[in-house]
Amino acid sequence: MTAAPPLPQPLAAPPLPAPERTKHRLLELLKRHGPQTVQDLAGHLGMSVPGARRHLGDLQDQGLVEARTERPGGRGRPQHVFLLTDRGEAAFPKTYSTLCVDVLRHVQALYGEGAVLQVLDARSAELAGRLQTDLPATLPLEERVQRLGAWLMGAGFDAVVEPGEGGAHYIVKRNCPNLTVARQYPELCLSELHMFVEVLGVPVTRETRIACGQGSCRYRIGP
């Protein structure tokens, strides 16, 4: 009886190219040690200062790293240091969604069904207060909707603004960075809807919702 041929072994993931490995190590050093000078980073990696500077320039272009000037220990000669941006921080694993779900579960258990919405509405009201500075009621509605869409885009929602019939506008969010929480607590989406109404001062209707399995969160603004 002929022996069966051996099963093929799974292919290992190809190693990162050397320049990408170097960039990854730079990000790890900044994550572990905080702001560093280019000389410090080059020394950690055993490479030249110009070489480290080139990689840091690429990371700056990608929005992962930024530079600033500071005095060591609060005194001495100013020096340029590099640090992670918010986007660079987001490249590392986080457990925020798990923590948020756990906190909301305890809020609900301790204070009852309506407590979760009450907490999230308080958060939304605070956000609305900040946004209203940039979206004053004196501006035309279309411009306020555009500014709200831009803010959502910056917050990671991949939002676009689309025109509608009868003078209405649409905000379409094609990503939900809070999806894990929203699937378990629909109050999060409801409080967001309340925030849109408060900020824009007109009726807002949600037509679709990512957390329900649809492709986007689609909000109709206006009549």
UniProtKB/TrEMBL annotation:
SMART domains: HTH_ARSR
Stretches assigned to the HTH arsR-type domain: 20-97
Pfam families in alphabetical order: MarR_2
InterPro entries assigned: ArsR-like_HTH (IPR011991), Carb_Metab_HTH_regulators (IPR050313), HTH_ArsR_DNA-bd_dom (IPR001845), HTH_MarR-typ (IPR000835), WH-like_DNA-bd_sf (IPR036388), WH_DNA-bd_sf (IPR036390)
Gene3D superfamilies for the chain: Winged helix-like DNA-binding domain superfamily/Winged helix DNA-binding domain (1.10.10.10)
PANTHER family: HTH-TYPE TRANSCRIPTIONAL REGULATOR SRLR-RELATED, TRANSCRIPTIONAL REGULATORY PROTEIN-RELATED
Protein name in the entry: HTH arsR-type domain-containing protein
